[in-house]
Amino acid sequence: MGLPRRAGDAAELRKSLKPLLEKRRRARINESLRQLKGLILPLLGKESSRYSKLEKADILEMTVRFLQELPASPCPAAAPTSSDSYREGYRACLARLARVLQACRILEPAVSAHLLEHLRRRASGATPDGGLPGDPGSPPSPAPPPAPPTPPQPAPFGDPGFWRPW
């Protein structure tokens, strides 16, 4: 096929390329949604295999809800020190862990509560090197032994977190 020589040939070429370009655009959108689903499900503590057939709108709604729940990053006039930033990150991580533990129910409630309480105590005085202020040489305390795994519980039918038209 040669180069178009007339305006009519160029219009025909554009007309024939339009479906191909649209197909590529849709493929890019679908690939991005697939990646977004792979990123958001673990952050929400949901098992990917149970959510293999999510609609595109569901993926976007879950992502929007997750981003809305993230704590807004403050913009103070003075730049925070590295230890302030570390503590803020530690607290944000702890809050996310609390949500995930509650949603997944991987640990027994008593073990989960004990773990969160331990981490909250550490957060009140934690430093970036893992120690407590005024305690430069002590290693961080060991984590409690993991609880035996419990079988995953099926989600209740008609999960109120997602609206479906059926």
Outline the fold blueprint.
Layout: H1 7-43, H2 56-69, H3 82-104, H4 109-125
Helix pairs in contact: 1-2, 3-4
Describe this structure in words.
The chain has 166 residues and is an all-alpha fold. Helix content is 55%, strand content 0%. It is elongated. The termini are far apart. 3% of the residues are buried. Mean pLDDT is 74; it is low at 134-142.
Quick take:
This protein has helices at residues 7-43, 56-69, 82-104, 109-125. With 166 residues, it is an all-alpha fold.
What's the total number of strands? 0
Q: In percent, how much strand structure appears in the residues?
A: under 5%
| Biggest sheet layout | none
What string, H for helix and E for strand, traces the elements in order? HHHH
Summarize the amount of helix as a percent range.
40-55%
Mean model confidence by pLDDT: 74
Domain Orange: 86-119
GO molecular function: DNA binding; protein dimerization activity
Subcellular location: Nucleus
Region (Disordered): 123-166
Which structural traits does this protein have?
166 residues; mainly alpha; 4 helices; DNA-binding; DNA binding; transcription regulation
